[in-house]
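Hi R.,

Here's the chain you asked about this morning:
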Amino acid sequence: MPSVSRTWAKLVDQDFAIVKVMDCRERSYLTEVTKYVCSGAEMAGWEASKIHEFVRAVKGKRFFFPFGSLFKEQSAIRRALNAEEKEPMMCECGCGKFHFKNALDAEVAAILRECEARPRS
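And here is the predicted structure, written out as tokens:
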């Protein structure tokens, strides 16, 4: 990986660069990529019509792809990734079912719980 970082830094005319190689099938990949398009807070300030226009423009588009020597190796890399058995995440109690939420999701869920707990008049 250090040679990739040095090469990328040279290409973008920087002293150093941080390079991450990620499995694009994971959700974390989507988060990593989309943060370079715009921040979630920035998009939240867009008009609904602009968000809709953006989603229509990028839907089904492929933004990242293998090139150079990786293009020739993509089948072997895909086989290696598919062959890896991922350890399921387990909590201390042995449960492996998780629901991940960001701060906003957690806040909305708390508000909904409060509303449901209030007596209706």
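One quick note: Helices lie at 2-11, 27-34, 40-44, 48-58, 69-83, 103-117.

Cheers,
M.
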